[in-house]
Specification:
Number of strands: 22
Largest sheet: 8 strands, parallel, barrel
Shape: globular
Strand order of the largest sheet: 1-2-5-6-7-8-9-10
Number of helices: 9
């Protein structure tokens, strides 16, 4: 085999691994437990996520970060993106607690994907930690790694998103920009990722990926070890990398620049799903949902309704969040029912649009407060916990049951009532009209009585919500009242009574 062939083979082997999220069999959905502590995530894996079929958890950056209590800020959520070293010590916990979380979650089939910040280092003035930098363009050292000024690009602000050099070689929001062409920097980053792999993680969400040259990322990934087989991963399994690339068109850096590296966040999806379920587009336009809308290929695109950044947009925006109630739950249900993409859902803490920088719930000593679990299974102590809403976790089960089944039996009334099947596995209908939906439709499902997993849940042979009778020919009467709490009905073969 000549050198060119070896290089091509090596790249294809690397790329193939990076496209596999390394889920346990029969699981399909990642939940972002934003700013949760490691001890709480471990317990949530065992008591809820594992039993309810969640595939993985995206966790906040485990690397030591700046403590931001200056310029009027009081431990804002974004301080976690200003890392000061690769020591695993944050408000979420220490290295021992992180390792214990990963072990316990893997044991119940739930994979861990930490937020990996390596485009830049911490940037604000007067930050505490093991190192630091100023906002005046003078880069100090980060002694625990160590990095000094020679490991960064020459300070310059990002001012032109039509210039890829400016976007990738200058400072994002003033943060010192690492020079990823340097062997030393590449090895330090790979070493950090390797350490997390040793502890059992399944992959990484790469923060600010559009600000790193793809060739640099590829080189770094090539230095990273295979997954740890002690945590149940098969021999030669590669970590899954999925990349934050904000691209809604009109910029020099494209999301397609990163599809050769793994998954990529599809930021057009939350925009379009938001305006549609807000009623600004009719639901029948969703028939060709996916690549015809300008989305990434399905096996590359991370499909999400909102994330921790865009949910904090200004009031009246297009993005749907937990604050939006019924249309939000409908959008999340559609995202989970449709076969497009690698699905990630958000689990938030409460925040105000008057203070979008606010910290996660914390006590007087600035320690993060654990979510409390109410008798009905919802969360307290300032945590939203959308993943515990029955309309959402039941649709996670729907997605697991649907698996790779194709979308079939599309129906619409030409406006805001739609339905479709996941052939032979599940069926879902949506009503966003101001009038009731009452139609006879082909479900593709075997005959029987099914529990609508949106209005209720299955318990043994009973359903706490509506039921749907499917006839021997697969037809069923589908009814969704316009005044119902949710404008969705969903049934699947795992919810047959």
């Amino acid at each position: 085999m000549n050198l060119s062939a070896i290089l091509i083979f090596t790249f294809l082997t690397l790329a193939h691994g990076q496209f596999d999220p390394n889920y346990a069999p029969g699981r399909n959905v990642i939940v972002h437990l934003f700013e949760w502590k490691w001890v709480d995530i471990a317990e949530e894996c065992e008591r809820f996520l594992g039993p309810n079929g969640f595939a993985g958890v995206q966790v906040s950056s485990p690397a030591e970060n700046a403590i931001v209590t200056v310029l009027g800020f009081n431990r804002p959520w974004w301080e976690r993106y200003h890392i000061m070293s690769y020591i695993l010590e944050t408000r979420s916990g220490n290295e021992l607690e992180f390792a214990d979380m990963v072990r316990r979650c893997n044991a119940v089939g739930v994979r861990i994907y930490p937020d990996a910040v390596f485009n830049h280092m911490g940037s604000l003035p007067n930050m505490t930690g093991t190192g630091g930098s100023t906002a005046d363009g003078v880069i100090r050292t980060y002694p625990e790694i160590p990095y000094d000024a020679t490991h960064f690009h020459i300070p310059c602000p990002i001012v032109d998103y039509q210039n890829s050099d400016n976007v990738r070689n200058c400072q994002l929001l003033g943060a010192p920009d690492l020079n990823h062409t340097l062997e030393y920097v590449r090895n330090k980053i790979a070493g950090y990722l390797d350490h997390l792999i040793t502890l059992g993680v399944a992959g990484f969400r790469v923060d600010s990926a559009k600000h790193i040259w793809p060739s640099d990322s590829q080189d770094i990934y090539g230095r990273v070890s295979n997954l740890n087989t002690d945590h149940g991963f098969a021999d030669n399994s590669k970590p899954y990398f999925y990349h934050e690339v904000i691209d809604v068109g009109g910029e020099a850096v494209s999301k397609y620049d990163y599809t050769g590296l793994g998954g990529v966040t599809e930021f057009l999806l939350p925009y379009y799903i938001g305006i549609t379920f807000r009623g600004n587009r009719s639901l029948d336009t969703l028939q060709n949902w996916g690549e015809p809308w300008g989305f990434l290929p399905s096996d590359r695109g991370i499909a999400f309704v909102e994330n921790h950044d865009n949910e904090r947009g200004t009031s009246g925006r297009d993005i749907l969040t937990y604050k939006d109630g019924k249309p939000y739950r409908m959008a999340v249900a559609f995202n989970l029912a449709h076969p497009y993409g690698i699905t990630r859902i958000m689990s938030s803490f409460y925040f105000s649009y008057d203070n979008i920088d606010q910290s996660p719930p914390m006590d007087d000593n600035q320690n993060i407060i654990s979510p409390s679990i109410n008798p009905d299974g919802s969360c307290g102590n300032g945590w939203v916990c959308q993943h515990r809403w029955h309309q959402i976790y039941n649709m996670v089960k729907f997605k697991n049951v649907a698996g790779t089944a194709t979308l079939s039996n599309w129906w619409s009334n030409g406006n805001n009532q739609i339905a479709f099947a996941r052939s032979g596995k599940g069926f879902v209908a949506f009503n966003n009209e101001g009038s009731d939906m009452d139609v006879i439709l082909q479900t593709s499902l075997p005959a029987g009585t099914y529990c609508d997993v949106i209005s209720g849940s299955v318990s043994g042979t009973t359903c706490s919500g509506k039921t749907v009778i499917v006839q021997v020919d697969g037809m069923a009467n589908i009814v969704i009242g316009s005044a119902e709490e949710d404008g969705v009905l969903a049934i699947h073969v795992g919810a047959k009574l």
